[in-house]
Specification:
The protein contains eight helices and four strands. By secondary structure, the protein is of the alpha+beta class. Helix 2 crosses helix 6.
Length: 208
């Protein structure tokens, strides 16, 4: 969990201790329109602001929050995990591309599509960001034949990593997307409708 800089004395660190930073955690779902709105503002306006004025004071963490009532939510988040495993530096560009194309993965656009075909589209989208498309698909595809020991429900190449992300999210009790945590505490004053100016005002008040 994130630690507010003013509580940095609580860290027991052997060797060189990294500087204490404020932490903004954004719990976002790729098929949530409000998550898209927040991500696009943060990625295009807030991150440059941080780069200019708060580089040694605040960091942003993208927390993947699956919303299971949209079945495709799991699939698109799996694709992001595959990108993290293969090309972590492409995670944010891929996320930006996925949010831009999010309606292509809404319920009505995947309801008649086999799962592996959706994975192929996601792998192709990853490929458009310079990620190895074939490697992404290999991680995502689900075999149609029993695996070792007759297993028929073992998931794919990112299942174990996805479980860890889901477990971490459940520990916070986050339900709604987007949700923002600031130094480990839910920050209800920040909404998806926050503009660049509102973010800038909030930063001035909260990031010392």
């Amino acid at each position: 969990m994130a630690l507010a800089p003013k509580f940095a004395g609580q860290k027991l660190s052997a060797g060189v201790s990294p500087p204490a930073l404020h932490t903004l955690e954004l719990y976002l779902d790729y098929v949530c329109p409000f998550s898209k709105k927040m991500f696009q503002t943060v990625y295009s306006s807030v991150y440059p602001l941080i780069s200019q004025h708060y580089t040694s004071k605040v960091q942003i963490i993208f927390r993947q929050q699956i919303q299971p009532w949209h079945p495709s939510s799991t699939l698109v988040h799996e694709a992001a995990v595959a990108v993290l495993k293969t090309s972590p530096d492409k995670f944010f560009p891929f996320s930006a591309s996925l949010f831009e194309k999010q309606t292509e993965y809404f319920d009505v656009n995947v309801v008649h599509e086999p799962r592996n075909e959706t994975y192929k589209r996601l792998a192709k989208l990853a490929g458009s960001q310079g990620v190895d498309e074939e490697r992404i698909y290999d991680l995502l595809k689900v075999d149609d034949k029993p695996g070792e020991g007759g297993s028929m429900n073992s998931g794919n190449g990112v299942t174990d990593d996805l479980k860890l992300l889901v477990k971490a999210a459940r520990l916070t009790g986050v339900h709604v997307t987007p949700t923002v945590l600031f130094n480990g505490v839910v920050e209800n004053s920040i909404s998806s409708s926050f503009t660049k100016d509102q973010w800038e005002d909030w930063m001035k008040k909260n990031v010392a």
